[in-house]
Amino acid sequence: MDSIISIKDLSKTYNSGFEALKAVNLEIKRGEILALLGPNGAGKTTLISTICGIISPSSGSVTVDGFDIISDFRKTRAMIGLVPQELTLGSFDTVWSTVRFSRGLFGSKRDDAYLEQLLKDLSLFDKKDSEIRALSGGMKRRVLIAKALSHQPEVLFLDEPTAGVDVELRKEMWKIVHKLSKQGVTIILTTHYIEEAEEIAERVGVISNGELLLVEKKDELMESLGKKQLIIDLKEPVKKIPSSLKNYNIELSEDGMQISYTYVVKDEEVDVSEVLHEITNSGLLLKDLKVEQSSLEDIFVDLVKEES
Question: Long-range pairs for 96-103 at CB < 8 Å and ≥24 separation?
Answer without folding.
Answer: 96/128, 96/129, 98/132, 98/143, 98/146, 98/147, 99/143, 99/146, 99/147, 99/150, 100/150, 102/147, 102/148, 102/150, 102/151, 103/150, 103/151
